[in-house]
Amino acid sequence: MKTKLIILLWLVVFSSTAFGAASKADTMLVEKQHFTTKDFTTVSGVTLEQVDIGWESYGKLNANKDNVILITHYFSGTSHAAGKYKADDALPGYWDAIIGPGKAIDTNKYYVISSDTLVNANWHDENVITTGPASTNPKTGKPYGLDFPVVTITDFVNVQKRLLDSLGITKLHAVMGASMGSFQALEWATRYPDKVERLIHVIGAATMDAWTVAALEKWALPIRLDKNWQQGNYYGKERPLDGLAATMLNITQDAMHPIIYNASFPDFNVLDEGALKDIRTLPKLNQVLAQRAMARAKTQDANHVLYLVRASQLFTAGMQSDLTTALKNVSAKTLLLPATNDLLLRPENMRTVFDTMKATGKDVEISEIEGGWGHLDGIFSIAPKAQLISEFLEE
Questions:
Q1: pLDDT per residue over 203-212, tens digit each?
Q2: Mean pLDDT per 10-residue interval, the chain, length 395 residues
Q3: Per DSSP, which regions of the chain are E strands?
């Protein structure tokens, strides 16, 4: 049973959904919706004539519009945080274990909303709506390519704010996100402190350091080196799938701890017969990984991934060079949930953030997520924190 579970979870590492325990009988059915806004000016100073993003919601908005929880998604994720689009979908949204009727984020009480980010990686996913390099530039009638402006986590948040404004929502009961989603959640709390009552920051960071910026560039490099990338001008031509698949391999290994990674291959044999006989033959392990990575790459756009890397590399809370000053802006009750075994966004950094916020009198608590997944514990091992999250939202 354990081996079967590991295999199932491994399959969804390369997808924008994650394992959920819901049965067909109790799974929410959700509908993807489309939001359009005009004349959006980015932090980099470029105005986009039109921005489109997809979004979905769970639960009902109350009359006062004050029961709203915003979920902000991770790097390779989408708005699909919970439920299913169709009853026979293979898997529910990535946080289905904690979002739904009677769950930690109880949709009988809260109106939960989630949106695709700008430059969402999953351009070729039929359930994703986003604006980015693959979108048509109205000035040329062709895809933007690298003429698309650099966008930041702040831009992601500002598009979300326009979406909420269009719905008449002026305050958030809570904002919660994992990994790159935690960047957005914290940006909400620092940039719009009067609009955020609670912040739940999962497997994240408050600012990038030199190590992490360099590590993220390893995700971009295979794309840039792919002969088909053509400085981003590959639309209508052969896509740089080899480079993008290599990027998927790098992302997945960085996000996983060796405990689960190694347990995922119970039949692994270091003395691989094919690899021993011919340098051109990959070990079976690498063949399996390459197939999975290529399947994931086909749902994504390489340029969009590069833009997500850059947005992540440029992240620092409130776009302020001094983190302590930025954190002073936070007025929301804050729950920090780093993962103890996270090798990508290391928990010691969030322990420092906790100490800094505590020292400045902020209402903050920290509880580490235990598990063997590493960074991905924020997705796959979130259920044990359900009671804590539920109580935090009620306080």
A1: 999 999 999 9
A2: 44 49 65 98 98 98 98 98 96 97 98 98 98 97 98 98 98 98 98 98 97 96 98 98 98 94 92 95 94 96 98 96 94 98 96 96 98 96 98 94
A3: 33-41, 47-58, 68-72, 99-100, 105-106, 111-115, 136-137, 142-143, 174-178, 198-202, 333-337, 364-366
pLDDT, one tens digit per residue, over 133-163 is 999 999 999 999 999 999 999 999 999 999 9
Contacts of 331 (CB under 8 A, 6+ apart): 189, 193, 194, 196
Q: Among 106, 125, 242, 342, which one carries the catalytic annotation? A: 342
What torsion do the CA atoms of 323, 326, 329, 331 make, to the nearest 10 degrees? -50
Exposure string for 355-370, b = 16+ CB within 10 A, e = fewer: ebbeeeebebebebbe
342 counts as catalytic: yes
Catalytic residue among 182, 375, 377, 381: 375
Selecting among 76, 115, 135, 179, the annotated active-site residue is 179
Residue 395's pLDDT is what? 79
Which amino acid is located at 163 in the chain? Answer: L
Determine the Cα–Cα distance for residues 92 and 80; give it in Å rounded to an integer. 8
